[in-house]
Design a protein that fits this description.
CATH class: Alpha Beta
Structural class: alpha/beta
CATH topology: Rossmann fold
Radius of gyration: 14 Å
Helix content: 25-40%
Strand content: 15-25%
Oligomer: single chain
Number of domains: 1
Largest sheet: 5 strands, parallel
Number of helices: 5
Bound molecules: 1,3,4-trihydroxy-5-OXO-cyclohexanecarboxylic acid
C-alpha cells in the first residue's frame, strides 16, 4: 500500500481558533480526518505531521524516501514565503510534492504572493479551504497510480 506524507507547517495547529475570518472553523483534526477518509477510499496510507519548527520539517522531508513515502502533501504555511531550507529539502528528496494552502495566497498581502516551494513542487493548490488538501491528495493519487 502506498504511503503519503502530509506536512502541516507553523500555526496550523491553531486552526479553528486562529484568524477564523480567513481560515474558518475547521480544525487540523478535521482536516486530517477528512484526508484519512479520502486515503482509505483510495487504498492509501497517510501519515500526518505538524510542526512549528523549520528544521523538524526539513528533517521529516529528508527522511521521507527512506521511510517509504511515495509522495508529499505539504502546507508549508508561513515558511512558504521564507524557507530556502524547506525548498531545498523538497528538491533533494525527489518525491512528487504538492503544495496546498487554505487561503488564496495570491489574493492576500503581497509578501504571501511568492512561494519559494512552488518551483520545486509538482503543483500548487490555493484558496479552497479544506478542499485544497482534498484536491491536493487527489492529485497525488493520480500521480502515484
Ligand atoms: C497558509 C497561507 C500562509 O501565507 C500563512 O502563513 C499560513 C497558512 C494557508 O494555508 O492559507 O499560515 O499556508
Amino acid at each position: 500500500m502506498s504511503k503519503v506524507l502530509v506536512i502541516h507547517g507553523p500555526n496550523l495547529n491553531l486552526l479553528g481558533q486562529r484568524e477564523k475570518d480567513i481560515y474558518g472553523d475547521t480544525t487540523l483534526e478535521d482536516i486530517n480526518a477528512c484526508l484519512n477518509e479520502v486515503a482509505t477510499d483510495a487504498d492509501l496510507e497517510i501519515e500526518t505531521f505538524q510542526s512549528n519548527h523549520e528544521g523538524d520539517i526539513v528533517d521529516k522531508i529528508g527522511q521521507a524516501k527512506k521511510e517509504g513515502f511515495a509522495a508529499i502533501l505539504i502546507n508549508p504555511a508561513a515558511y512558504t514565503h521564507t524557507s530556502v531550507a524547506i525548498r531545498d529539502a523538497v528538491a533533494a528528496v525527489e518525491l512528487p510534492t504538492v503544495e496546498v494552502h487554505l487561503s488564496n495566497i495570491h489574493a492576500r498581502e503581497e509578501f504571501r504572493h511568492k512561494s519559494l516551494i512552488a518551483p520545486v513542487a509538482y503543483g500548487q493548490i490555493s484558496g479552497f479551504g479544506v478542499d485544497s488538501y482534498v484536491l491536493g491528495l487527489e492529485a497525488i493519487i493520480g500521480l502515484i497510480a
